Amino acid sequence: MDENKQENTEKAINPLLKMALELGPPILFFILYIRIQDDVFTIGDIEYTGFIFATIIFVPILLASIAALWFLTGKLSRMQIFTAVMVILFGALTAWFNDPRFFKMKTTLVYGFFTVILGIGLLQKKSYLAYVLSEAMPMQHEGWMILTKRLTILFASLAIANEIIWRNMSESTWVTIETFIFPVVMFVFLWVQIMMLQKYMDLDED
């Protein structure tokens, strides 16, 4: 039993290295896109815009970073696995149909998926968020329900915002917001919520 527990425990990793592996791929995608956004690339007899070419390059970069995290920590979160699947799927659709809309819609579908999943849990008076994060952040059930409700609203808002942005704004604006603004909004939101829900935290647990 103890051996199994030990195997499932995430190995220690330098926080800066972990941050670089998690944030590196989208930042590299942004830098690559900015450099080649006006270029056209021909592969075979098919011409690809800079955005689609950057997307094609982004997929293996992201998978390499996830593989490195798996190798270094011995564990992958459900979020990382889901992200890898969505990026591969919509990256492939973007390249196959030579249509950037697939990759832009990916963000809407990811946020929409989380909205639906968390919403179903709320209807059942459960927090699927607790199922994923309870080990890292011990908290009472009431606190998890509050956080889940608020996060469901945030995910729904981000899904709607993504649709409005990519359909009505320039491609470079969407890339900038997708790379920097959405993650910052998510980070600030979670940080504020954790501060607000301190009274529900099980601080006496290890």
From TrEMBL:
Keywords: Cell inner membrane, Cell membrane, Membrane, Transmembrane, Transmembrane helix. Pfam families: IspA. The chain crosses the membrane at residues 12-36, 48-72, 79-97, 103-123, 172-192. InterPro entries: YciB (IPR006008). It is found in: Cell inner membrane. Signal peptide: none annotated. The keyword Membrane applies. It is a multi-pass membrane protein. It comes from the Bacteria. Belongs to the YciB family. Plays a role in cell envelope biogenesis, maintenance of cell envelope integrity and membrane homeostasis. HAMAP family: YciB. This is Inner membrane-spanning protein YciB.
